[in-house]
Structure formats: C-alpha cells, structure tokens
Amino acid sequence: MIGHHGGMRIVGRARDGTTLSEFDLGHGEDPTEQLAIRGLRILEPVDAFGSDDSLTVTWQVEPDPGIAVTIRPAEVEESELTDVSQAVRRQRVAAYAWVESSRGILASEFYRPVPGGRWGLPGGGIDPGEEPSDAVHREVMEETSQKIELGGLAGVDTRRRIGRSLTGEIEDFHAVRIIYRATCPDPTDPVVIDVGGTTTAAAWFAYDTWSDQSWNTAWLEVIRRLVGE
Predict the structure, then answer these.
(1) What is the sign of the dihedral through the CA atoms of 200, 174, 153 and 218?
(2) 86-226 has which CATH code?
(3) Main-chain phi, psi angles of 25, to 5 degrees
(4) Which long-range contacts (CB under 8 A, 24 or more apart) does 24-31 make?
C-alpha cells in the first residue's frame, strides 16, 4: 500500500488528564524529541486514533525542565547530495505490530535490500479514512496471513531519509511508524497474501534466535527498545 500522507497531531497529557502540550508534527520531526524540547518526559504511549489529516497520537508525560534533548539528523544516502533544497518532501504514516506467539516473533521480508538486512515488523501504510488499529490488522493479514489481537500502543518511530526514490528523483522522505504490541493466539505457517506487493516472505523467529536474523538496521533499534535491551 502507498499509505497515508497526511499530518499528525501530537498530544502530551499529565496523569490527571490535563493537556500539557499539543502540536502538529512537522516534516522530519520525531514526537519524542519534540516533547522533550517542550520540557516533557514521556511516561508511556496512550493511543493513536483518527484518520487522514485528523490522526492524533497521545502520550502520558510529566514536566522535566532538565531533560536532555538529542535531535537525530537526517540519513543522507549519497555524499554528493549536499544541496537538498529542491528535494521532494514526502511523509508516510504507517502502522506496524510487534507480534508474539507460541512460535516466537512475527517478521516480514522486504522486497528489496535495505541497510542491515531484509527483515522487519509486519505492517504498512494507512489507507485514506482508515484508523491505525484497523490498518495494522489488515496489513498483518496481507503480509503474513496471521490473525492478531492488539495490545497497547508501543510508540512511534520516525526516520528522515534524503536520497533517491525508486524513480531516481531526490526526495526528503519522512517515515512515521505507529507501532503496536500484539499477540497471535493461533499461529500458523505464514503466507504472503498480498503477492506482488512490498513483502516477499514472512516467518516466525524463535525467541532465542530472533536477534540472529538479518534485520533492517532501523527495525533492530526499534525491537531492542521493545524488548528492553
């Protein structure tokens, strides 16, 4: 799926429900970094709801004026791309799931080589008018043929990449990935249903071997945070 290209509203709420900050996520921005800039420490993600340009992600936060702020720079793929002022800006909001079962961790394989490896978490673009939770159910089924039960929101991961698109044009690409925790009560042998899409294979990786697999570098960072490494 091409996926959703609209904006995202970020809300930081205190334990008592008071809204401490609310803002639109700008191109290339990371919500955790932006909350920190506003002097807020994230306690836990709360929910993601809405569709198209009304998509809102809420975190429970607390004030922390001394919080350290580190802004991750954009990933520039080619050294000669020094002037990116004419790069086409694109933002893609997608939904993914960290799926656990008696067979291990569910993974999907990308259709083309990416930094660090071919495996990532199943999921994909949010269609127009679609809620993130509905999108992740649909995408996991299309990519792996597995029925899942969603748990809580695990967080939002963002990446900004400046490089060449598949058509050769220079693009400034902002990936915004909403990530859920999920379980699969009745795991089966994974099958890619959406043949011809961006997924070429799917698999269960045992808990004691998942870290040995050829994960995409960005996804490996996300997974290590999810498992607390």
Answers:
(1) positive
(2) 3.90.79.10
(3) -75, 120
(4) 25/176, 27/89, 27/91, 27/172, 27/174, 28/74, 28/160, 28/172, 28/174, 29/158, 30/71, 30/72, 30/158, 31/57, 31/59, 31/156, 31/158
pLDDT digits (tens, 9 = 90+) for 21-45: 999 999 999 999 999 999 999 999 9
pLDDT recorded at residue 115? 61
pTM for this entry: 0.91
Per-residue pLDDT tens over the stretch 38-82:
999 999 999 999 987 789 999 999 999 999 998 988 888 775 665
Phi first, then psi, for residue 24 (nearest 5°) are -85, 135
What pLDDT sits at residue 5? 45
Pairing of strands 9-13, 56-63: parallel
Q: How many degrees, rounded to 5, is the angle at CA 127 between CA 106 and CA 97?
A: 20
What count of other Cβ atoms lies within 10 Å of the Cβ of residue 215?
23
Asked if residues 111 and 25 have their Cβ atoms less than 8 Å apart, the reply is no
Pinpoint the residues of the chain covered by CATH 3.90.79.10: 86-226
